[in-house]
Each structure stands twice: as C-alpha cells, then as structure tokens.
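In this supplementary section we document a worked example of the pipeline. Step one takes a protein sequence of length 969 as its only input; no multiple sequence alignment statistics are reported here. Step two produces a three-dimensional model, which step three serialises into structure tokens for compact storage. The input and output of this example are shown verbatim.
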Amino acid sequence: MGTEGETPMPARSSRAPTESAFAIVLRRQRESAGLTQAERAGIGVRTVSNLERGINSSPYPSTVRLLADALELPQDVYDDLVTAAGRQAATDRPVLPTGGYLGAQPPTPIVGRDAERAAIVDALTAAAAGEGQVILLAREPGIGKTRLAQEAAAYAGSRGFVVASGRCFEQQSASPFVPLLEVFASLHQAAPQSVREATGSRWPALAPLLPDQLRPSRTRGSTTPDAAQLLHRDAIALVREIAAKRPVAILIDDLHWADDATAELLMYLVRHTTRDRVLLLGTLRDAEVGSVHPVRTLAHALRRERLTRAISVDRFDRETTARLVSQRLGEPGVAPGLSDLVHLHAEGNPFFTVEIVTALVERGDLSLVDGHWVCRALTDIEVPISVSEAIGQRVARLSPSARNVLEAASVLGTAFSPDDVPVGETTDGELENALDEATGCGLVTIVEDGYAFDHSLTQQALHLGMSPVRRRRLHREVGERLERRPVAARRRRAAEIADHLEAGGANGRALPFVLLAGDVAADAYSQTEALRLYDRARELAERLGDDAGATEALERRGRVELMVGRYDDALDHLVETAERYRRADELGSRLRVEGMIADLQHRRGEGEAAAGRLDELLAELEIDTGSDSWAVGGAVLANGLARVRLSLGQHELCLEATELAARLAQQEATPAAEADACAVGGTTLIFLDRPDEAVRALERGVAIAARIDDATLESTAIMGLQWLTTMRGELSRSRALGERGLELTRRAGNTDMESNHAAGLGHTLYYTGDWDEAQRYLEHSIELARAGAPTLNSGIPPIYLGLLRAGQGDAEGAAACYDEAATAPDLQTFAFAGYLEARRGQLDLRRGDAAGALARLEPWLAQEAPTKVHDVMLLVTATEACLALGDTARATALAAQALRRADATSNRVDAVDAWRLLGRSRRLTGQDDEARDCLAAALELAISIGYPAAEARVRAELIHLEPDESDAR
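The serialised model returned by step three reads:
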C-alpha cells in the first residue's frame, strides 16, 4: 500500500466537526454503558470523543464492530448503529479522500505512463462490452503501480463502473480475505437496494466477506472444501448480479501480501467472469513473490489460460523525471542539472525521486524565493543515496515526540489505528499532536478513522532503522495491548497478536494466538493457511518444549484434514495425536481423537478396520461399553463407535453406543455430542422398526442443535427426520423440514449436505405431484453432488432424480441416473443397494421384463425384513412382477408382507401401492368384495397424504371392478 510514485507537498488538514446520526446514536449508547466500556474495546477517549462530536462522522466498519462488541449491543441496537454509520447512498457517487493509496483520489495529475494508461483504457473498454479483463501491474516498490491503479479507478468511475478496491497488508497476510472485505463491502453498498436486502437469503455463504453487512450468527465455521466452493459460488453470483446492471472494476493493491484464500477466490472469479462486464486489476512486487507464493500460482494460471495481461511498470527516463520534479515543485522548467542529478541517484524510481526532492527542500538545498525555487550550487548538494537515507533525513527533522510515535507506529504496518500505537505514557493530546506533525510533512496520511504511512517503504525504513532491542520491545507492547481487547477483537486479530508477541520474544504467550489464528483461517475456508498456522504452532511449541501445545496443534491439523477430505494425511496425524495423548496419559483427549479416527475410517469405507481398532482400544483401557464411567471426551468416542456399528449393520450395538454417547454428553455438558448421538441413534431406530422413537430422537437432536446454534448438527438430524416424515405421509411437514435443512446447510457451507437436503426435498415434491419444483431441486442436488468428491451420500441425488425421470416416462434417463447412483461408495450402509435394485426392477416392469425384475429382487425376498428401511417399496415391486407373471399366490403373500412392513415402519406412502396390488390380487382370484375393500383403503390413504400419482393408479385399478355394461343388459 502507499503512494507508488509522486506525492504532493501536503498541507495540514483541517476537519470541521459536524453533528451526525452516528454521533447521536453512539453517544446515547456509550453514556448508557459508560465510557469505560468503549475504552475496553481498545478505542481511546480521544477517538470516542471525535466520533461523538462528528469529527469523524462515517467510521470504518471495523470500528463500528469494535464498539458494538465492547458495548455489548443487542442486534436491534447494533443495526441502528450500522445504519447511522452508513457512508454514502448506493445511488450516489462516493466522495473519495485524497491520498496516495488505492481507494483514494490521486493528489496530483499523473506524469508519463501514456502506454500503460492506454492499455488500461483498452481493458476497461473491453470489460464494459462484456469481455472480462485481468490486469497485473508489476515491478519494484515505488515504481508507480498504485498511482496507475488510482488512474484506472478514476477512469472506471467516470465511465459508470462500480469501483471496488482493497489492499493487502504484510501484517495481515495470515488473515483470510483482508483485501476482499473492502471489495465486497463496496460492491454490496453499490448494489441495488433489492439486491442488498436479499443478500443474506440468496447468498448466505458470503458472511465471511460481509461480516458487517450480514453479521452471521454464531455458528461453527465449516472447513470442508464444499464450504469454500459455496463461498466462491456466492461471491461470483453477487459480482455477476451487479455487473448485469453496471460494469464492475475490482482493484487490489499489494497482491504480494495476499493470503491463499484470497488468491483462490480471485482465480475462481476470473475464470467465471470471462463473459461478464468485470475488470480485475492487481498490483504486486514481482520480486517479492516466490515460486510457491499463492499469487505466483495465480499469475501463472492466468497467463497459461490467457486470462490476463501483465503490464510491467518501468522506471522513468530523464525527461519524465524532469517533469515529475517540476510537478513536485510546482514550477515548470526546473534546471536540467538538478533534474539530472536527481535522476542519477533515483535511477528513475518515482517514489525515490519525490523523496529526494522533499529532502532537498526540507534541508534547504532548494528554497522558495519570491515565488520561485532557488537551488544551491549543484556541487554543494549531497543527495541521499537510498530511499532509507532520504526518509531518515526527513524523519530526523521531526520533533523527538513525533519521531518516537512514527517509529512506534511502524511496528503496526503500513496502516494503523492511533489506539494501537505503543506510546507508553504519551497522552492522547501528545499523540494527536505528533501525528498531526507527521501528517503535515507528508510522512503519514489520514485514512478513514486511522492513519497510513505515505508508502510501505517509509514504514519499512522506520521499522528497520530502530535498534533490535527497541523493535523487540515495541512488538511486545503492541501484542500486550491487543491481548487486552474484547474476545471478538482478539479473535479477528489473532494472527497479528501472535506475530507481535513472537517478534517481541513472548513465544509462550504467542502460541495460543497462533492456534486461534489457525481456527479463524479454517472457519473462513482458508484451509491451506490454517494448516500452515497449525504447523507453525507445533514448531513453536516444540521450541518451547511444550508437548501439550504441539499435540494440540497436531490434533487441530488432523481435524481440518479430516473435514477437507485429506484422509491419508488426517489418519497419520490423528493416529500420532492419539499416541501422544496415550504417552501423556491424557485419557479424555485420547478418547476424543479415537472417536475422530473412527469417523475417518468410516468415511473411508474401512468399517472393519475401525471396529478392530476400537475393540483393541476398549480392551486395553478395560472400558465397559455398558458403563458410564468414561473419561471426559468419551462421548465423541461413543459416537464414533456408533457410526462404525451402523456401517457394519450392527444396529443393536449401534443403538447402545448412541445411548451411551448421549449419557456421556450429558455428564460432560457437551450438547453438540448429545445432538450428534440423537441424530445417529434416530437413524438406527429406523432400522429397528421403531419409527415413533426414531422421530422423537431426531426431534430431540434438532432441538438441541438449534439451541446451541449448530447449523451442521441441526441439518444432520433434520435429514433423517425429513426422510421419515416423507415415508409417513406427512408431506407438508416434510417439505418444511427440507426447506429448513437447505437453509441450514447453506449457512453452514456444506454442499454435500446441501445436495442431500435438496434431493430429499425433491423426493418429497415428487410425491406431492409438484414435479417441476421437484426437478429443479433434484437437478440442483445432482450438480452439487458431481462438483465434490464422492461421499456416503453421493448416491441419493441420482436415485431420486431417476425416480422422477421414470415418473415422467423417461426410462432411459432413469436408467442412467440409477447407473450413476450405483457408482457411489458404500451404498449398503443405508440399504440403498436393495432400494436401487427395486427401482431398476420397476424399469424392467415398464419394459415388460417381469422375470428380469423378479430375478433382481430374489436375493432379498427370503427375509421378512429384507432391507429394514426400504422393504415396502421392494416388496411392492416384487408383488407387481409376480402378478405380471401370473403367480397370484406369491403376489398375495408378498403384498401382505409389504403391508406388515408398512405397519412396522410407519411407511404410509408405499403402503398405498401395497393395498392397491393386494386389491388386484384379490380381483384376479375372484374376490371382488375383498378387492374393493383393499382399493378403498388405498384410495383413502392416497387422498389423506396428498399423493396424486398413487391416487391415479388406484382409480385406474378400480375401473376393472366396475360392472361391464354388456353384462348389465
């Protein structure tokens, strides 16, 4: 960040206080809570006073959030504060501050750069015509990249573009999405009102990019790849929505400090806006981007796919340098000898050129006499030989207090809040005077409600110019200052706090913040950054000899790898973690990790291996699964044990494990584990012909998860409950549950579960006869399922879509769906193999191949309850095949068996067809009265549950029982 080129001689700013809506609301809330509450946020008395007096009437969103956290404002009051702090109506053109940073109005006209500006204009013209464009401005620091980007922003704004800019900061390079927070806040503000109002419902995954606008509920973030995909999808959807109305220019400064998550989202954005009115422009120092840097990967990918044009920003020649010197001095025709001398030392670098001229002016080598600049003899002028020397000379002319403040501020990075500056006993007034002095000489500029150095090189020169001892002490003081912030603020700035404490030598205090920074990155879908931070935490802990800290870092890494599907790495790290806990005799932690290992092996389809490991563990620890005397952490292990038992079809043992998990969770006061136990237990009860108990268990799981606001667990419990209510014929309730499940999974960011919920909702709508809506949800579920890696749920969307295709008369399409479902992993876990063959048997019947249909199902027909959960539908298909083959006796027996299973499982939906086919069987054996009774029962059931397709089948069957008119005559 900072001025990449020429900077004017700044004048001391004057800010007139004005009353504002924000000042009024803040004053009312602060007086209610007390000033100390605001101070607890880490915002000084002076800053609060300036806000309340209207000196700063439109604060940064982060400041509003910091105040809201400290004042503990309820949602409605928070909303009032945000509304009052609103900067500019979306329909108005924003008034930009003047400064040398991207997002500000350039302070002076640009010098030179004709070819570069022409290329930018061409790109903007193409973008406005619907050809997505990417420009990367690269070269060394101070060469003028930011100044060119400012020119691009001004030109884009004048041509009706929505302009959104963001900046990367070195000190925040471990925090996900820092530049995109600014970008998406600007895009959201510029969007039409209807789009802004609908953002939360249409694109809920954008909450990490719009924390102030959407203010997400306190749910645990998802670390699955699906969550990142959903964020990317929603981000591009919002950009395209805006670009459809006005072209969009996104400009990001200092990409060499971008994090992995930002680079990944930008790559996604570029690839999906090649036919949209979108321009992305980024600046970077190519020399500082290593071969493994995420931006280097981004740039290579863009070049390989021919999606970008790179503009190398070269140094000025002598003539252009002379023009810049003349502009800086405000006088044309500066002596050629002076400009040549400056060019010789600055070597055409615009920023260094400006620094040399400024140093000469401040030193007196250049004097303004009677309105004209007078230069000392060139032979007497000693020009600074480096940027650092030029900056050092300028800083040396400040007062001692101003120098101390600037050096202290330099440890905070290129942009800083005055409330973060470690100034010891300096009063607010002294701090403000020092910053005003630095602003007056142009070393810092005012940025929103904070300050920024005029260039990152200025900050670096000050930072490196201090003694190592002082630099270390200031970093430690900053870390300690930030440590005292409220919990929400500490979480947001965990990576910064860790960096400062570690740089200050307080490694032991830094460790928890490195771990917390990893958690923040994981919750923001930046898994690569999270894994890097967990590795850093482990290395730091090992240097400290902190085995417990190293083990904790290893466990968190394994958990993220488990959730993102890196199963091999996850297994290695979690097994090592479990062994570490064993050696440390940390029984509860060991049990927790062993539960995760069981879950991991279950997902890998290694149920037998997982069962063997758990049996060995239980034997080693002499743990009785019938006893509740387990260590804390046992609830997670019991849930892992339950999942393994379910995958092996050991339903009674699974139920025992879930009951144990629920009791342990209550003892441990871990409601999440209890909700999980209810979800697994409820699913198991379905297999045990206890549907009413299954409903109660799943409803309890939903209630517990909702109480703790855990969207993932709530949607998991809803998934089983929604299927149950569908089969029970409670279709209205099932539809409401499906819609709720979709809402939750979109909020949690898990597209695997979203796919499953969309399929379940489409399944319900198939039964209600809303086939157009059903098709929309089912095709959406298929799209999501195909986008991710195969999971245990992958077969559900294609099976349900195949059912709809068959109902629509598209037998070929249905067969293709069933073939796709057959490739899903471990279908037998939920008895879907039998379900799939029954659906294929129905297609055989439509083709007139009753014998083939029956042959498919014979392996299941020797049992009273062949699949436990899909029995009725399977038996109905077999019944119809027997009727087609003329075997009415077996058909009658199978229909009766289907009705017994329907009663045992509360399956009223499939019971309609069981009654219908039993009626046909009675008719074919001459039992017309009994046939009418069966068909009457079928018709009443179909009507009561609102199943029109089945009702039509029953009415068609009834026609065969109507008296023949010829017989009547």
